């Protein structure tokens, strides 16, 4: 449910009541600078969505009803539409246009590991594709399974598997079911005095299983780490049996197979339990704003803190464009144009730790040429930290196209990567007659490098899907040519599959195929996602 | 070469001149408490070692000579003996007894990735097993390939691949060849102002490739991390082609395939280059000794620092036995019996950082009941940090059996694991009529758990290999029953293969076999190591 108590939007993000009205100056800017014109048609109503007839081997459905009960096996119109694709802009554009052509034939809601395992066995036997479904927030086509060669598609919704299974306070670990949404997980852990510390932009609607399957990274990754760093144990169901991985924080007992499942995006198995490292719930949180003269100046400051510390818990840097249009704080979009580059440095923890780290990091930031903007700017960022996707809905409503993509590389390659991707997006979309605004930020830092997260906005072409496909391909080509990774935290899905194969090379793809053939010989697990 | 300028010992550890003379009280203690009697025979001379005739398909040797040059293809007696097995106590016992039955037929020394790849292709064609050989320091049978089903065994010595290929000072990464020994790597990095920060007990003779292949952990892992955490990129040669893995510090582009190669122990491919995160060479190093009343008290203090910081760079805790016999500082063995449990807390870094961390950590250690023993005790540990293996040679010379094994688990299971392994070793060896001394330390800490490292000494039975096999099996069974991992940093090798398979389960083993079948269809890569 959403904050306003209604079901989340089926064709947009979250709570429809929270989609902002674009300020008049922004609308003017969109029209004048980007040539955005009002949309030709409003989004369709759910009743008008075009939905294919469900088509599944009859015996399969009966078997699933016998396994799970009729209540947990659904093929009503709304269930199917709500499990159609994810939340990328192309996904939303298709649904807003009434196209639910990728809808699953059936939605099932298993309640346990054993039920998941039984569903997989049944689907393998009937050759029905299985799309594991957590929060449904994939932005890379991770929920768009290939139907070809199979006899149907089933969405495996993990919503009923939403319990905190165990807390080990001494070891500071917790075992969570995959269908827990992040806010529920935080609430359950909070009752034990812990936090997971994982706050991606999708926080309000994303699931624990999805975090594991996609190697999610949250906004506080500088302090709490990426999700894949938090995972110490995994339980996985596959059509060929179960895996129980992780008996210690670290081990030399062979390859780390947890790291083979993390990032496998439902193509190798279904994660049915995740044991994570948790942290003491912070007693104090404070976020500061800083201004740097240029993106390279800000980057140098971030690198310094990432390499020599002290590490803030949150550390972000917006480029000049993102800072100027106020995208770093969507709530103030267009109303607070500013120059330079905004840095947010946040600290969470015990009061003395927060004070010590904040003092030392502030001295470093000032020493690197940063100008303090105070905690008010930081708090404003914090209030709006999950607002980006709502802004996208408003831009789509206004006739614009808005989407994001992200990558990562080592520090010495950051400048080149930034220019290459910006140039590729700008040139490709300009050539199409829709010159874009391209903004960027650094939101995840490591000792050896960092991520770059791009936001693109432009006028919608006649065929916005083809328009973006070409731009995305150009950006992906630029990313690979710069030696960077095609995705830092969104995942591969179906959308990045070709670039992913180029990134890791044919032998690595063959290795993954060999693993998949062993665990999923019928090829039913999220076909077309990750590997072909 | 060794410090005294001679070749390292072929049947013991390192520089024979550094094997200590056991103090008289220790010899008395061994005799009285453990029933150790002088050995029945001295170790054989190299000339008296029994070595099978080399037996390799003729065409294979010719092909290798054509590829590498005659100089780099060796089957002289000394080369073969020096590449026979590793440095476990059973390995040494066999060689001291003149048994080189596992000697490779041939030793080859490729000079580049392409030469390694060519050797692998040739060996695959001729069905000759390939044992990658770095420092030769495996203590788990990682160099004892199974000959059955193949037409010969070749040791692939990487000693000529000993260059620092690249330093990226901005990203703080360095690319190293696998045959670099750790001291060489430190020296080369030191010239750029960096350290790898990886100091396992085998430091003086172990190689970069070996660290990667076995997921090594060094004595300063609390500060610099484990080796697998340092690796950001890998180049791997396999019979089916090459892998280039790692384009960013972190990525969501599928499973982390670096983590599939790390810990693969030469069974999936040969690591030909490793790109690692490096750290600024520390300007200051200081190590303090602390005394805790009991092992659980010390463990609680370590857990506190591991979970809430500040993290020392080195953090170790010896149990009462290890502390009492002085094993924590082998140079003072028997001469400084003491009570309680010794903790070493070391700090490396910039002077202000060292001072701040030392002050804060010392306050925590004192707050947890620790009694400061001063820096002299810490420096004494530092001087002797690599001395353990020499002590083993002295004990073998005296007729004792001495060996180590290690494991890891989560904090809440540490007490049970400690008791279970200690009891298993003690009961099994006592039942054999050779009651042991079992000492233990914690040398690697994480937020969620830690490692346990056991040292066992007892009288040699008539058949010391069978004696230890039974004790090791009992310890391994106890480790698995306690839910812990069969190895924290030594690796699986041939010795842990059965317990490893039980630890990860049959489906995980099948997954690894599927990967191996894809990369090494002829099954020539270190057969019998890791997977069957």
Question: Count the helices of chain A. How many?
Answer: 19
How many strands, which pairing sense, and closed or not: the largest β-sheet of chain A?
A: 7 strands, antiparallel
Q: Could you name the CATH class of the domain at 164-248 and 256-280 in chain A? A: Alpha Beta
Instruction: Extract low-pLDDT stretches of chain A.
Output: none
Shape of chain A: globular
Counting copies of identical and different chains, the oligomeric state is homodimer
CATH structural fold name of the domain at 164-248 and 256-280 in chain A:
Uridine Diphospho-n-acetylenolpyruvylglucosamine Reductase, domain 3
Give the strand tally of chain A. Answer: 18
Content of β-strand of chain A? 15-25%
Going by CATH, the architecture of the domain at 164-248 and 256-280 in chain A would be 2-Layer Sandwich
Distance between the termini of chain A: 35 Å
Q: Kindly state the mean pLDDT of chain A as a whole number? A: 95
Greatest interface (CB-CB under 8 A), with counts per chain: A-B, 87 and 87 residues
Biggest sheet of chain A, strands in spatial order?
15-12-14-13-17-18-16
Helix content of chain A: 25-40%
By secondary-structure content and strand pairing, the structural class of chain A works out as alpha+beta
**Rounded radius of gyration of chain A (Å):** 23 Å
